[in-house]
Structures are given as structure tokens and as C-alpha cells.
Amino acid sequence: MEQFFNSPCLFRKCCMSEPSPVVYVIDDDASVRQALRSLLRSVDLDAEIFGTPHEFLQGTRSVAPSCLVLDVRLPGKNGLDFQLELVKANIHIPIVFITAHGDIPMSVRAMKAGAVEFLTKPFRDQDLLDAIHVALERDRARRRRDAEVGALRKRFESLTAREQEVLPRVVAGLLNKQIAVEIGTSVTTVKVHRSQLMRKMAADSVADLVRMAQKIGIPFTAT
After folding, report:
1. What distance in Å separates the CA atoms of residue 64 and residue 23, rounded to the nearest whole number?
2. How do residues 118-158 score in pLDDT, each as one tens digit?
3. Most buried among 11, 26, 59, 219, using CB within 10 Å?
4. Is 222 a domain residue?
5. pLDDT tens across 22-68, in order?
6. 3-state secondary structure of 46
7. Domain containing 106 — which CATH number?
8. Cβ neighbours of residue 142 under 8 Å, at least 6 residues apart?
């Protein structure tokens, strides 16, 4: 790898409230692993290195934003196959592939499966660092989405059974009298349930409630 890095400030830790991001490296070449760790540390990025996918899976992964720098050709397991294995195991981590034996079909397969970048050795350090930056930002965004969805699900679970019954009908655009007929209650009772669920969901409007329902997968029809 060519030593080339002009903007270390891009990678400096700038948010004390967020855990320090971690870059995992899987490469069967010890010299490459050490070189990558040194590069990452030089820009204040924590790095954990592994010789095989098995070692990575046996380790404890950080709750901080993270990404994986993964060699394509590894002993006993192809990096592209490991990418799919992670998806099936519900391990969502952005991947930057590196390889000395890459070709276009490999890169296309990796990118279609969600890889951030596919770099062929020798590559510039800056190209790798740029890809890692993108990968970490992607992981931060995913974590924010997951946290938001988790909070919305908790709000939904705080609703009574009747309020949960009313909510999909509200987002479907039914009037209170229509909802009352469908669930067999009075319009006054529907108004109370509607007011309560809006408050518990912290929704300022029906449009706001619709966006929340979309994020947590509530169907816009009666259940």
C-alpha cells in the first residue's frame, strides 16, 4: 500500500458522546494486518485485526459504529461467501473489500450484496480511508434508524389493545364514525382512543402518525 494521507482531521474523534468507532480487519497476511492497524491508528481509529472469519465471529463486537475491511481470498472461506453469511446471521456491518486477485465479476457481486467499496491491491491509503469513512457513516445512519424504530415500537407497545386496533384505521384515513362501526364501539370512545394513541405515540398530526406507522411496518388497513 502506498503511504498517502493528507487529511487526518477527517477521521479525528469529534463527538465525545459517541463511542469511538471500530474498524475490524480480516486478512490472512499478518504483515498486511499490522500495516492496516498502524494506518488506522495513525488517524485515531481503533482497529481490531483477525486472520480468519472464524476469529472475527468468536470475538466480541463493539456497540460503537463499525465497519469491516475484508480480504476476498481467505483460508477456508471466500470473503464474498462470508459477506452473505453475515447477512444471513443478521450481522449488519458495512464491508470494504480488499484483494490482490480481484476481477470485475467479483466486484459486481460484492457491490450488489451491499459492499461499500472493492479495492484491488496495491491501493492508496487515502482510497481505503475514504471508503472506511463512508462505511462508518453508513453504520452510524443505520444505528440511528434502528434506534428510532426501536423507540417507536416501544411507544406502540405502550398502547392498549383497543388503541392498537384503532391506529391502523386512523392511518388508513378512516373517519371516527367508520372506525366505530368497524370495531363495534361509539364515536365518542373512538375519539378518546384516537386522542390517547396520538399522545402516546407523540404524533403531532395524522401525517406524522402515518410516517411512524410506515417505519415500524404497521399496515394501513384494519387488522
Report:
1. 10
2. 999 889 999 999 999 999 999 999 999 999 999 999 999 99
3. 26
4. no
5. 999 999 999 999 999 999 999 999 999 999 999 999 988 888 999 99
6. strand
7. 3.40.50.2300
8. 92
Distances (CA, A) of 102 to 3, 10, 214: 21, 28, 40
Identity (one letter) of the amino acid at 91?
I
Of how many residues is the chain composed?
223
* Structural domains of the chain, count: 2
Q: Which ranges in the chain belong to alpha helices (H)?
A: 30-42, 53-58, 79-88, 104-112, 125-157, 161-171, 176-183, 187-201, 206-216
183 contact partners, CB below 8 Å, separation of at least 6: 162, 165, 166, 169, 190
Of 28, 191, 72, nearest to 36 (Cα)? 28
C-alpha 62, offset from chain centre: 14
Answering whether pTM is above 0.85, one says: no
Q: What is the pLDDT of residues 70-111, one digit of tens each?
A: 999 988 878 999 999 999 999 999 999 999 887 889 999 999
Of 114, 52, 106, 108, the C-alpha closest to 87 is 114
Which residue is it, cell 406502540? 156
Joined together, the cell numbers standing for residue 100 give 490482490
Q: What are the grid coordinates assigned to 142, written together? A: 443505520
- Domain range enclosing 133: 8-12+16-146
